[in-house]
Design brief:
The chain is mainly β and about 350 residues long. The protein contains 4 helices and 15 strands. It has a 5-stranded antiparallel beta sheet with strand order 1-3-8-5-6, with no helix packed on it. A 5-stranded mixed beta sheet has the order 2-10-9-4-7, with no helix packed on it. The longest helix has 14 residues, at about 1-15. The protein starts with a helix and ends in a 17-residue tail after the last strand.
Protein backbone atom coordinates (compact mmCIF):
# COMPACT_ATOMS: atom_id res chain seq x y z
CA UNK A 1 0.00 0.00 0.00
CA UNK A 2 2.85 2.41 0.75
CA UNK A 3 4.44 1.74 -2.62
CA UNK A 4 1.14 2.31 -4.47
CA UNK A 5 0.58 5.60 -2.65
CA UNK A 6 4.07 6.71 -3.57
CA UNK A 7 3.57 5.93 -7.24
CA UNK A 8 0.33 7.87 -7.35
CA UNK A 9 1.98 10.85 -5.69
CA UNK A 10 4.75 10.83 -8.26
CA UNK A 11 2.20 10.62 -11.11
CA UNK A 12 0.38 13.71 -9.90
CA UNK A 13 3.60 15.66 -9.69
CA UNK A 14 4.48 14.82 -13.25
CA UNK A 15 1.25 16.02 -14.85
CA UNK A 16 0.01 18.77 -12.52
CA UNK A 17 0.41 22.39 -13.53
CA UNK A 18 2.59 24.71 -11.40
CA UNK A 19 -0.49 26.62 -10.30
CA UNK A 20 -1.99 23.45 -8.82
CA UNK A 21 1.16 22.75 -6.82
CA UNK A 22 0.99 26.28 -5.39
CA UNK A 23 -2.63 25.78 -4.32
CA UNK A 24 -3.94 28.28 -6.88
CA UNK A 25 -6.07 25.89 -8.92
CA UNK A 26 -9.23 27.79 -7.93
CA UNK A 27 -8.01 30.76 -9.94
CA UNK A 28 -7.74 28.83 -13.22
CA UNK A 29 -11.22 28.27 -14.60
CA UNK A 30 -12.86 28.10 -18.00
CA UNK A 31 -16.06 29.94 -18.90
CA UNK A 32 -18.59 30.14 -21.72
CA UNK A 33 -21.11 32.83 -22.70
CA UNK A 34 -24.07 32.56 -25.10
CA UNK A 35 -25.03 35.85 -26.73
CA UNK A 36 -28.04 37.60 -25.26
CA UNK A 37 -28.40 35.37 -22.19
CA UNK A 38 -27.30 36.60 -18.73
CA UNK A 39 -24.86 34.28 -17.01
CA UNK A 40 -27.25 33.36 -14.21
CA UNK A 41 -29.84 32.07 -16.71
CA UNK A 42 -27.58 30.10 -19.07
CA UNK A 43 -28.79 26.77 -17.66
CA UNK A 44 -32.36 27.64 -16.68
CA UNK A 45 -34.12 28.49 -18.93
CA UNK A 46 -31.02 28.71 -21.13
CA UNK A 47 -30.68 30.28 -24.55
CA UNK A 48 -32.91 30.09 -27.60
CA UNK A 49 -31.89 29.72 -31.21
CA UNK A 50 -34.02 29.28 -34.32
CA UNK A 51 -33.49 26.61 -36.94
CA UNK A 52 -31.52 28.16 -39.77
CA UNK A 53 -33.09 28.10 -43.24
CA UNK A 54 -30.82 29.51 -45.92
CA UNK A 55 -33.79 30.27 -48.18
CA UNK A 56 -35.28 32.61 -45.55
CA UNK A 57 -32.29 34.94 -45.87
CA UNK A 58 -32.27 35.62 -42.11
CA UNK A 59 -29.03 35.48 -40.13
CA UNK A 60 -30.10 33.75 -36.92
CA UNK A 61 -26.76 32.24 -35.93
CA UNK A 62 -25.82 33.11 -32.33
CA UNK A 63 -22.42 33.94 -30.88
CA UNK A 64 -20.74 31.65 -28.33
CA UNK A 65 -17.63 32.77 -26.43
CA UNK A 66 -15.14 30.59 -24.54
CA UNK A 67 -12.41 32.00 -22.29
CA UNK A 68 -9.76 31.19 -19.68
CA UNK A 69 -9.67 33.06 -16.38
CA UNK A 70 -5.92 32.74 -15.80
CA UNK A 71 -2.70 33.09 -17.77
CA UNK A 72 -1.67 29.44 -17.57
CA UNK A 73 -1.95 27.49 -20.84
CA UNK A 74 -1.40 23.90 -19.76
CA UNK A 75 -3.48 21.04 -21.17
CA UNK A 76 -6.54 21.12 -23.43
CA UNK A 77 -9.95 22.78 -23.26
CA UNK A 78 -12.82 20.56 -24.45
CA UNK A 79 -16.24 21.58 -25.73
CA UNK A 80 -18.91 18.88 -25.99
CA UNK A 81 -22.46 19.11 -27.36
CA UNK A 82 -25.28 16.69 -26.49
CA UNK A 83 -29.07 16.56 -26.36
CA UNK A 84 -32.22 16.36 -28.45
CA UNK A 85 -32.13 19.41 -30.70
CA UNK A 86 -29.61 19.80 -33.48
CA UNK A 87 -26.89 22.46 -33.53
CA UNK A 88 -23.59 23.00 -35.28
CA UNK A 89 -20.68 24.97 -33.81
CA UNK A 90 -18.59 26.99 -36.27
CA UNK A 91 -15.35 28.95 -36.14
CA UNK A 92 -15.34 32.75 -35.93
CA UNK A 93 -15.11 33.11 -39.71
CA UNK A 94 -18.04 30.67 -40.16
CA UNK A 95 -15.94 28.67 -42.59
CA UNK A 96 -15.07 25.56 -40.54
CA UNK A 97 -17.38 23.38 -38.48
CA UNK A 98 -16.02 22.69 -34.99
CA UNK A 99 -18.54 20.06 -33.86
CA UNK A 100 -22.27 19.31 -33.75
CA UNK A 101 -24.81 17.64 -31.47
CA UNK A 102 -23.35 14.37 -30.22
CA UNK A 103 -19.76 15.47 -30.78
CA UNK A 104 -16.92 17.36 -29.12
CA UNK A 105 -13.78 19.31 -29.91
CA UNK A 106 -10.65 20.13 -27.96
CA UNK A 107 -8.14 22.97 -28.28
CA UNK A 108 -4.74 23.49 -26.69
CA UNK A 109 -5.50 25.89 -23.85
CA UNK A 110 -3.19 28.47 -25.42
CA UNK A 111 -5.62 28.78 -28.35
CA UNK A 112 -8.48 29.91 -26.11
CA UNK A 113 -8.50 33.58 -25.11
CA UNK A 114 -7.22 34.40 -21.67
CA UNK A 115 -6.94 37.57 -19.57
CA UNK A 116 -6.21 40.59 -21.73
CA UNK A 117 -6.76 38.60 -24.94
CA UNK A 118 -10.53 38.56 -25.28
CA UNK A 119 -12.71 35.47 -25.48
CA UNK A 120 -12.54 33.02 -28.37
CA UNK A 121 -15.55 33.56 -30.64
CA UNK A 122 -17.59 30.71 -32.10
CA UNK A 123 -20.97 30.63 -33.83
CA UNK A 124 -23.95 28.35 -33.12
CA UNK A 125 -26.31 27.30 -35.92
CA UNK A 126 -29.65 25.61 -35.20
CA UNK A 127 -30.28 22.61 -37.48
CA UNK A 128 -33.28 20.74 -36.01
CA UNK A 129 -35.85 21.69 -33.33
CA UNK A 130 -35.64 20.56 -29.71
CA UNK A 131 -38.04 18.03 -28.23
CA UNK A 132 -38.01 19.76 -24.85
CA UNK A 133 -36.96 23.13 -23.50
CA UNK A 134 -33.24 23.31 -22.79
CA UNK A 135 -32.47 19.86 -24.20
CA UNK A 136 -29.26 20.90 -25.99
CA UNK A 137 -26.32 20.92 -23.59
CA UNK A 138 -23.05 22.72 -24.23
CA UNK A 139 -20.28 21.73 -21.80
CA UNK A 140 -16.77 23.21 -21.72
CA UNK A 141 -14.13 21.70 -19.42
CA UNK A 142 -10.51 22.38 -18.47
CA UNK A 143 -8.58 20.61 -15.73
CA UNK A 144 -11.49 19.94 -13.42
CA UNK A 145 -13.29 23.24 -14.01
CA UNK A 146 -16.28 23.55 -16.33
CA UNK A 147 -19.18 25.67 -17.48
CA UNK A 148 -22.54 24.72 -19.00
CA UNK A 149 -25.06 26.38 -21.30
CA UNK A 150 -28.42 24.85 -22.22
CA UNK A 151 -30.17 25.74 -25.47
CA UNK A 152 -33.62 25.28 -26.96
CA UNK A 153 -33.74 25.08 -30.75
CA UNK A 154 -37.07 26.39 -31.99
CA UNK A 155 -38.73 26.56 -35.37
CA UNK A 156 -41.50 28.89 -36.48
CA UNK A 157 -42.83 28.85 -40.02
CA UNK A 158 -45.68 30.52 -41.90
CA UNK A 159 -47.03 28.49 -44.83
CA UNK A 160 -49.48 29.57 -47.50
CA UNK A 161 -50.74 27.57 -50.46
CA UNK A 162 -47.41 27.86 -52.28
CA UNK A 163 -44.24 25.82 -52.50
CA UNK A 164 -41.60 26.59 -49.86
CA UNK A 165 -38.96 27.33 -52.46
CA UNK A 166 -40.93 30.28 -53.88
CA UNK A 167 -42.44 31.67 -50.67
CA UNK A 168 -39.34 33.63 -49.72
CA UNK A 169 -37.73 34.12 -53.11
CA UNK A 170 -37.68 37.85 -53.87
CA UNK A 171 -37.36 37.06 -57.56
CA UNK A 172 -40.64 35.10 -57.60
CA UNK A 173 -44.19 36.32 -56.96
CA UNK A 174 -44.94 33.93 -54.09
CA UNK A 175 -48.61 33.34 -53.38
CA UNK A 176 -50.84 35.43 -55.65
CA UNK A 177 -53.88 36.90 -53.81
CA UNK A 178 -56.57 38.82 -55.65
CA UNK A 179 -57.74 42.22 -54.44
CA UNK A 180 -60.95 41.69 -52.47
CA UNK A 181 -63.02 44.38 -54.20
CA UNK A 182 -65.96 42.32 -55.48
CA UNK A 183 -69.49 42.18 -54.07
CA UNK A 184 -70.16 38.47 -53.57
CA UNK A 185 -73.54 38.84 -51.85
CA UNK A 186 -74.60 41.76 -54.09
CA UNK A 187 -75.64 44.00 -51.20
CA UNK A 188 -73.90 47.07 -52.60
CA UNK A 189 -71.02 46.80 -50.14
CA UNK A 190 -67.61 45.68 -51.48
CA UNK A 191 -66.21 42.57 -49.87
CA UNK A 192 -63.29 44.42 -48.21
CA UNK A 193 -65.88 46.47 -46.23
CA UNK A 194 -68.39 43.68 -45.59
CA UNK A 195 -68.97 41.12 -42.84
CA UNK A 196 -67.63 42.97 -39.78
CA UNK A 197 -70.15 45.77 -39.10
CA UNK A 198 -68.02 48.65 -40.30
CA UNK A 199 -71.04 50.94 -40.66
CA UNK A 200 -73.09 51.15 -37.46
CA UNK A 201 -76.03 52.72 -39.33
CA UNK A 202 -76.76 49.69 -41.50
CA UNK A 203 -77.07 45.98 -40.82
CA UNK A 204 -76.26 44.97 -44.38
CA UNK A 205 -72.53 44.77 -43.59
CA UNK A 206 -73.03 42.61 -40.49
CA UNK A 207 -73.43 39.33 -42.36
CA UNK A 208 -70.43 37.82 -44.15
CA UNK A 209 -70.32 38.14 -47.91
CA UNK A 210 -69.24 34.52 -48.32
CA UNK A 211 -65.89 34.85 -50.08
CA UNK A 212 -63.10 32.41 -49.26
CA UNK A 213 -59.86 33.75 -47.76
CA UNK A 214 -56.39 32.30 -48.31
CA UNK A 215 -55.27 30.08 -45.40
CA UNK A 216 -51.99 30.69 -43.63
CA UNK A 217 -50.69 27.97 -41.33
CA UNK A 218 -48.39 28.99 -38.47
CA UNK A 219 -46.23 26.07 -37.32
CA UNK A 220 -44.37 26.22 -33.99
CA UNK A 221 -42.02 23.47 -32.80
CA UNK A 222 -43.15 21.47 -29.78
CA UNK A 223 -40.45 22.65 -27.36
CA UNK A 224 -42.06 26.12 -27.27
CA UNK A 225 -44.27 26.63 -24.23
CA UNK A 226 -47.39 28.25 -25.69
CA UNK A 227 -48.49 29.41 -22.24
CA UNK A 228 -45.48 31.73 -22.03
CA UNK A 229 -44.29 32.31 -25.58
CA UNK A 230 -45.00 35.43 -27.60
CA UNK A 231 -45.42 35.29 -31.37
CA UNK A 232 -44.96 38.37 -33.53
CA UNK A 233 -46.48 38.42 -37.01
CA UNK A 234 -45.24 41.20 -39.26
CA UNK A 235 -47.10 42.25 -42.39
CA UNK A 236 -48.34 45.31 -44.31
CA UNK A 237 -51.70 45.51 -42.60
CA UNK A 238 -54.83 47.28 -43.75
CA UNK A 239 -57.09 47.56 -40.71
CA UNK A 240 -60.85 47.01 -41.16
CA UNK A 241 -61.58 50.15 -39.14
CA UNK A 242 -59.73 52.29 -41.67
CA UNK A 243 -62.28 51.60 -44.42
CA UNK A 244 -63.84 54.88 -45.59
CA UNK A 245 -67.65 54.93 -45.77
CA UNK A 246 -69.58 56.69 -48.52
CA UNK A 247 -71.30 59.93 -47.68
CA UNK A 248 -74.28 61.65 -49.33
CA UNK A 249 -73.13 62.37 -52.85
CA UNK A 250 -69.57 61.54 -51.79
CA UNK A 251 -67.06 58.91 -52.84
CA UNK A 252 -67.79 55.21 -52.50
CA UNK A 253 -66.22 52.76 -50.05
CA UNK A 254 -62.41 52.89 -49.98
CA UNK A 255 -59.92 50.72 -48.09
CA UNK A 256 -57.38 52.27 -45.76
CA UNK A 257 -53.64 52.10 -46.27
CA UNK A 258 -51.86 48.76 -46.37
CA UNK A 259 -52.39 45.65 -48.45
CA UNK A 260 -53.30 42.69 -46.21
CA UNK A 261 -55.50 41.63 -43.34
CA UNK A 262 -55.06 38.54 -41.16
CA UNK A 263 -58.17 36.99 -39.62
CA UNK A 264 -58.85 34.06 -37.32
CA UNK A 265 -61.91 33.01 -39.36
CA UNK A 266 -62.68 32.53 -43.02
CA UNK A 267 -64.62 35.04 -45.13
CA UNK A 268 -67.80 33.00 -44.80
CA UNK A 269 -67.93 33.70 -41.03
CA UNK A 270 -69.09 36.83 -39.23
CA UNK A 271 -66.11 38.77 -37.91
CA UNK A 272 -65.32 41.88 -35.88
CA UNK A 273 -63.01 44.71 -36.82
CA UNK A 274 -61.54 45.01 -33.31
CA UNK A 275 -57.95 43.92 -32.86
CA UNK A 276 -57.13 40.97 -30.59
CA UNK A 277 -55.04 43.38 -28.51
CA UNK A 278 -58.33 45.07 -27.50
CA UNK A 279 -60.23 41.90 -26.59
CA UNK A 280 -60.70 39.58 -23.67
CA UNK A 281 -59.77 35.91 -24.02
CA UNK A 282 -63.44 35.00 -24.42
CA UNK A 283 -63.86 37.52 -27.22
CA UNK A 284 -60.73 36.26 -28.97
CA UNK A 285 -62.23 32.79 -29.08
CA UNK A 286 -65.04 34.16 -31.24
CA UNK A 287 -63.35 35.93 -34.11
CA UNK A 288 -60.80 38.66 -34.52
CA UNK A 289 -58.38 40.35 -36.81
CA UNK A 290 -54.74 40.48 -35.79
CA UNK A 291 -53.78 44.12 -35.36
CA UNK A 292 -50.45 45.86 -34.96
CA UNK A 293 -48.04 45.06 -32.17
CA UNK A 294 -47.38 41.69 -30.60
CA UNK A 295 -50.69 40.05 -29.62
CA UNK A 296 -50.54 37.02 -27.34
CA UNK A 297 -53.10 34.54 -28.64
CA UNK A 298 -53.23 30.92 -27.52
CA UNK A 299 -54.92 28.44 -29.84
CA UNK A 300 -57.03 30.77 -32.00
CA UNK A 301 -59.99 29.03 -33.66
CA UNK A 302 -59.12 27.42 -36.97
CA UNK A 303 -56.20 28.44 -39.12
CA UNK A 304 -54.84 31.89 -39.57
CA UNK A 305 -56.41 33.14 -42.78
CA UNK A 306 -55.59 36.11 -44.96
CA UNK A 307 -58.20 37.64 -47.25
CA UNK A 308 -57.46 39.03 -50.62
CA UNK A 309 -55.63 42.32 -50.25
CA UNK A 310 -57.78 45.41 -49.87
CA UNK A 311 -55.25 47.45 -51.83
CA UNK A 312 -53.26 46.55 -54.89
CA UNK A 313 -49.60 45.68 -54.45
CA UNK A 314 -47.06 47.80 -56.24
CA UNK A 315 -45.40 44.81 -57.87
CA UNK A 316 -45.07 41.05 -57.88
CA UNK A 317 -44.18 39.40 -54.61
CA UNK A 318 -43.69 42.57 -52.60
CA UNK A 319 -45.99 41.75 -49.68
CA UNK A 320 -44.75 39.34 -47.03
CA UNK A 321 -46.12 37.73 -43.91
CA UNK A 322 -43.42 36.74 -41.46
CA UNK A 323 -43.62 34.88 -38.15
CA UNK A 324 -40.92 35.53 -35.61
CA UNK A 325 -40.10 33.37 -32.63
CA UNK A 326 -40.42 34.61 -29.07
CA UNK A 327 -38.84 33.65 -25.79
CA UNK A 328 -40.23 32.07 -22.65
CA UNK A 329 -39.83 33.43 -19.13
CA UNK A 330 -36.56 33.58 -17.27
CA UNK A 331 -35.89 30.85 -14.77
CA UNK A 332 -34.10 30.55 -11.44
CA UNK A 333 -30.57 31.97 -11.25
CA UNK A 334 -27.89 29.37 -10.79
CA UNK A 335 -24.88 29.45 -8.50
CA UNK A 336 -21.40 28.01 -8.71
CA UNK A 337 -20.53 28.94 -12.31
CA UNK A 338 -17.01 30.32 -12.83
CA UNK A 339 -17.10 34.09 -13.08
CA UNK A 340 -15.11 35.93 -15.69
CA UNK A 341 -12.42 38.27 -14.33
Amino acid sequence: MRTLGYLLWVGVCLVAAPSVLRGEEHRCTVGMDFAGVPEQFEEDPGGYIAVYHAEHNVDNWRALSIYRNCEHTFGYITLSVSGGGGVRIWTADRMSQVCSTGGSHEWPAAEIGGPGQGATLLWVEGTSPSWEQGDVHLHVEWYGTWDDVNLTVIEVDADVDAEDYIENDENKPGKVILVNNGDTDMDGIPNFADGFDRDEYTSKDDAPSGEQFVPILIKISQAVNLDNAKLTISYNQSTPGSVSLPGPGGPSYAPGTGALRLWTKNGSATRTMRSVTEMTQQEMEQCAVIGAGSPRVRNPPGNWVAPAGSNRSGGGGNEAVEAFDGKGPQGTPRAGRPQRE
